[in-house]
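Sequence, please.
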């Protein structure tokens, strides 16, 4: 299946979906406090998504039972919300969710601290975010897809982190998962050339320890093999003639993140 090139109309719909998702993440992060359950997070997230006239992308997607993946500490991705799982001071929690707006998708993830967190945890969260921006430097028309992968992996390895290899980023549009797959580590080849109109979900998943992971018996939740902390940062990106455009952030956040993009 070829990588789809979005029309001007499709891009506008994805911009709207992305701005809404950016607001959902911004508002959801403010709700995270010690003592709340991961199911509380799911309830709030779904209410936010629907309040903006969108459909939760993840709900019932391939059988996933919630509107947001809530992954705590050593959980890399796909944590299933539960009324029994309560957040504690010092935890870190990765929130991965998506919206569908008029048939078009946006996908993004953030890792946030619960109350005060350790320096080790705070560094991991910040550096995982910067891994994304290291990769975004290469998300330009004419560049090669796996240059993004190499930049992400190299940035993480500089700090001795493990970069998850079993899970990858992906194309996105009318469907949540479209070609191409986007690894987060160097590949043997440089991959396909990027073209204007491509929309990509780039998502570093970075562990303090090993890159190896385990899959839970629930069929969804992925954890670090050594029990170390993991962080996740993802955005939907549009490839344009003038450079990458972040779609899954608020307008204000886009201005601030542009400075990070220039500084990495």
């Amino acid at each position: 299946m070829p990588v789809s090139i979005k029309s001007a109309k499709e891009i506008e719909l994805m911009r709207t979906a992305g701005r809404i998702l950016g607001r959902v993440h911004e508002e959801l992060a403010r709700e995270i406090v010690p003592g709340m359950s991961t199911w509380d997070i799911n309830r709030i997230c779904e209410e936010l998504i629907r309040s903006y006239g969108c459909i939760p992308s993840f709900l019932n997607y391939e059988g996933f039972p919630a509107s947001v993946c809530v992954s705590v500490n050593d959980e890399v991705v796909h944590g299933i919300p539960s009324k029994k799982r309560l957040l504690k001071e010092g935890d870190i929690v990765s929130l991965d969710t998506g919206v569908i707006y008029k048939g078009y998708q946006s996908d993004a993830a953030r890792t946030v601290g619960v109350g005060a967190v350790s320096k080790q945890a705070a560094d991991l969260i910040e550096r995982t975010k910067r891994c994304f921006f290291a990769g975004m430097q290469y998300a330009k028309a004419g560049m090669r897809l796996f240059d993004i992968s190499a930049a992400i992996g190299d940035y993480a390895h500089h700090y001795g982190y493990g970069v998850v290899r079993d899970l990858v980023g992906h194309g996105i549009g009318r469907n949540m998962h479209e070609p191409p797959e986007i690894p987060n580590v160097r590949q043997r080849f440089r991959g396909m050339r990027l073209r204007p109109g491509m929309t990509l979900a780039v998502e570093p998943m970075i562990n303090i320890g090993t890159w190896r992971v385990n899959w839970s018996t629930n069929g969804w939740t992925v954890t670090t093999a050594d029990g170390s902390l993991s962080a996740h940062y993802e955005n939907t990106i549009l490839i344009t003639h003038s450079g990458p455009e972040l779609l899954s952030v608020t307008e204000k956040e886009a201005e601030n993140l542009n400075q990070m993009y220039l500084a990495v």
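DSSP finds five helices and 15 strands in the chain.
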